[in-house]
Write a structure and sequence with these properties.
Elements: E1 3-7, H1 13-21, E2 26-31, H2 34-41, E3 47-51, H3 57-65, E4 69-72, H4 79-89, E5 92-95, H5 101-104, H6 107-113, E6 116-118, H7 127-141, E7 145-157, H8 174-180, E8 185-189, E9 192-196, E10 206-210, E11 214-220, E12 238-245, H9 249-258, H10 272-279, H11 288-296, H12 303-311, H13 326-337, E13 346-358, E14 361-372, H14 380-397, E15 405-407, H15 412-424, E16 430-436
Parallel strand pairs: 1-2, 1-4, 2-3, 4-5, 5-6, 6-15, 7-12
Antiparallel strand pairs: 7-13, 8-9, 10-11, 11-12, 13-14, 14-16
Helix pairs in contact: 1-14, 3-4, 7-15, 8-13, 14-15
């Protein structure tokens, strides 16, 4: 029986756990919340739960040594330490996080140890890479050239659950969502390199219509040019990766950023209205709304102001206890107010837009995924993050992918079997084709 070590027991873990244990894999769940781990096993005699803190390096080494493979659902900043332990013990690793420069630097050592460090195997990143490469490689085999590639993804409430002013509810790490709003973006548009700082992203917002969903807002995400060579698209005119949200999200994140609420500073007040007053240089919260509106160059009744009011930022509500930073305090508040209620569904939306050339002919290919969560069951986010990681882990355990080193799933030997199995589990993209007139 294969033995897998799962580090972390967060929101996306349930489908991964179910997939592995249902296929006869013994699972050790190591986390700082054993009750959560036990709940994931649901009384099945198919694994064990260990009370483990991420600071326990010796414990990590022992657990890795007694496993055949490690899946890390820890925060991305912790993956390198896990990867080091995997290289030392010659065990494969799967994560759902972006490859950091520190992780990339482990490539030579992983190759020498014969270890696969397979990262970016979730939904975004993950399914986005795999589904894009499927189309790109097929086009190249057919003699076509990709001239433009735009990719969008977002996890949002299903339309019937979209009932708060933010148009958002949390299906994954709240701190991760907020910190994503502080990152710059870089992409190619019509042959020109475009770079945008976090405060400039609001300038790049544009609408995107998805059938069955409606109009969403899109804005650029991270550095799309990182994937030019990985996707085999060097020389392409347009290379863009974007995030999808319901309208209004980006301008609200902009306001939170301007107010310093996305920073890692310790809180300077115990109540939200006092904290905002301090951010605006006011002696007390009286007159907070008018000063806030003036600071943001908005009318007092603007939707952004109303969202901040609805969240409780303009009230004497206490900050969450023990939050070490402002952004973590905000994440705690938003997790309380922007939570899914029992029975509500989330929605994962993804769309790739390709333009291809075959001699004089031009074609647009649109590949789309609309995946709803299960009412009373697993969320769409959990399924689309956890299942690719679980399938990838099984491929490594079965020796169906053995090339050592640091990888993301852009190789045919990875994406083809993973996408095929995801389709059997109800996660598949659909395509439309349109000939473009010159």
């Amino acid at each position: 029986m294969s033995r897998v070590l799962l580090l972390g027991a967060g929101l996306v873990a349930p489908p991964l756990v179910d997939y592995l244990v249902e296929r006869g894999i013994w699972l050790t769940i190591a986390c700082n919340n054993p009750e959560r781990g036990e709940a994931l096993l649901r009384g099945r005699p198919v694994g064990a739960v260990l009370d483990w803190a991420a600071s326990d390096a010796e414990g990590l080494d022992r657990m890795v040594a007694h496993s055949d493979l490690v899946v890390s659902l820890l925060p991305a900043s912790m993956h390198v330490e896990v990867a080091e332990a995997c290289i030392h013990r010659r065990k494969h690793l799967v994560t759902t996080s972006y490859v950091s420069p520190e992780m990339r630097a482990l490539d030579a050592r992983a190759q020498k140890a014969g270890v696969v460090l397979l990262n970016e195997l979730g939904v975004d990143p993950g399914i986005d890479h795999m589904s894009a490469m499927e189309v790109i490689h097929r086009a190249q085999r057919d003699g076509a050239r990709v001239t433009s590639f735009r990719s969008y993804c977002g996890g949002i409430p299903a339309p019937e659950a979209n009932d708060n002013p933010f148009g958002y509810k949390f299906s994954w790490s709240p701190v991760g969502v907020l910190r994503a709003a502080t990152r710059p973006a870089r992409f190619l548009e019509g042959g020109k390199l475009v770079e945008r700082a976090a405060h400039e992203l609001v300038r790049e917002v544009h609408p995107l219509e998805l059938p069955g969903v409606g109009t969403l807002e899109a804005y650029p995400n991270r550095d799309a040019t990182d994937y030019l060579s990985l996707y085999g698209l060097d020389g392409i005119a347009t290379m863009y990766r974007g995030t999808l949200r319901y309208p209004g999200w980006t301008e609200t994140m902009q306001a939170l950023r301007l107010l310093g609420l996305l920073e890692n500073d310790p809180p300077v007040a115990r109540h939200w209205d006092q904290l905002l007053a301090a951010r605006l240089g006011l002696p007390d919260p009286s007159g907070l709304v008018s000063q806030l509106a003036a600071f943001l160059s908005l009318p007092p009744a603007a939707p952004v102001i109303e969202r901040l009011r609805w969240l409780g930022l303009l009230s004497p509500r206490a900050l969450p206890r023990h939050a070490p930073t402002v952004v973590e305090a905000l994440a705690g508040l938003m997790q309380e107010e922007l939570a899914y209620r029992p029975g509500e569904r989330d929605l994962l939306v993804m769309q790739h837009r390709f333009e291809l050339e075959r001699g004089p002919r031009r074609e647009r290919v649109v590949s789309s995924l609309v995946c709803f969560g299960e009412s009373g069951g697993d969320s769409a986010m959990a399924r689309t993050v956890g299942l690719p990681a679980a399938i990838g882990a099984r491929l490594l355990l079965e020796g169906r992918f053995t090339t050592p080193g640091v990888h993301i799933p852009v190789l045919q030997g990875l994406y083809e079997p993973i996408l095929a199995e995801l389709a059997t589990l109800g996660i598949a993209l659909t395509e439309t084709h349109e000939e473009l007139v010159a």
